[in-house]
Amino acid sequence: MSLIVVCSFCFSLLFLMPMMMQPLSLGLCIMLLTGLSCVLLGVVMSSWYGYVLFLVYVGGLLVMFAYVSALAPNTFFSSVKSIVSWAFSFIFVSTMLIIFYVPDFSFLGWLDQLATEKTIVSSGNIIVAPSMINVIIVLGAVLLVNLLAVVKVCYYQQGPLRSHSELK
Q1: Is residue 26 classed exposed, middle or buried when 0-12, 13-18 and 19+ CB atoms within 10 A define those classes?
Q2: Is 36 exposed, middle or buried (0-12, 13-18, 19+ CB in 10 A)?
Q3: Which residue from 49, 64, 82, 157 puts its CA 20 to 30 A from 150's CA?
Q4: Is this structure's pTM higher than 0.70?
Q5: Residues 143 and 59 sit within 8 Å (Cβ to Cβ)
Q6: What does the alpha-carbon distance between residue 94 and residue 104 come to, in Å, rounded to a whole number?
Q7: Whole-angstrom distance, CA of residue 98 vs CA of residue 11
Q8: Could you tell me if 39 and 50 are in contact, meaning their C-beta atoms sit under 8 angstroms apart?
Q9: pLDDT tens per residue, range 55-113
Q10: Which residue in 62, 60, 61, 41 sits closest to 51, CA to CA?
Q11: CA-to-CA distance for 168 and 153, rounded, in angstroms?
């Protein structure tokens, strides 16, 4: 039953994203959607996969938030009550649709079997095994190249992207 609630939260956040006009509210919506998606992946698949996916999304989200907040105009939030009412209505409607149109939850029984098999396979020792040292070295090299590329792109000589002198 909690899986259905998490899915309904994911769908409600997904449908609320076009209504977000501020970088802060859009970032919060994407962050919550990422967290819920990673929780779902952690339940269905390996928890390591959900954790790594969360770290990658949060890193990308921080970079995108920095760029968007530097370039976006300073606008005010619209009515918070309308966004909250839309969120609760989406959550309520999606939960009711799932409950009424899927009355038989026996198809979720495979999650128990998957959870017992998953604890045996995903202990984490496979990642740091001596046979996987080549993969770890390649991943380290890829991360180093990405770091150098980001530093090269972010090296600026002309100053900030948007000057704040006109706000005074």
Answers
A1: buried
A2: buried
A3: 49
A4: no
A5: no
A6: 17
A7: 11
A8: yes
A9: 888 888 888 777 777 776 666 666 666 667 767 777 777 766 666 665 555 555 555 55
A10: 41
A11: 30
Structure-token match 């309520």, residue found: 92
All structural domains of the chain with their residue ranges: 2-123
- How far from chain centre, in Å, is Cα 80? 23
DSSP characters for 75-112?
A: -----HHHHHHHHHHHHHHHHHHHHHH---GGGGGHHH
**pLDDT digit string, tens, across residues 62-78:** 887 777 777 766 666 66
Return d(Cα 57, Cα 30) in angstroms, integer: 9
Do the beta carbons of residue 13 and residue 29 sit within 8 Å?
yes
- Report which of 4, 2, 166 is spatially closest to residue 97, judged by C-alpha positions: 4
Task: For the beta carbon of residue 8, count every other beta carbon within 10 angstroms.
Answer: 21
Encoded amino acid at 7, one letter: C
* 118-122 contact pairs (CB < 8 A, 24+): 118/45, 118/46, 118/47, 121/46, 122/46, 122/47, 122/48
What is the C-alpha to C-alpha distance for residues 8 and 98, in angstroms, rounded to an integer?
8
Judge whether 108 and 4 are in contact, CB under 8 Å.
Answer: no
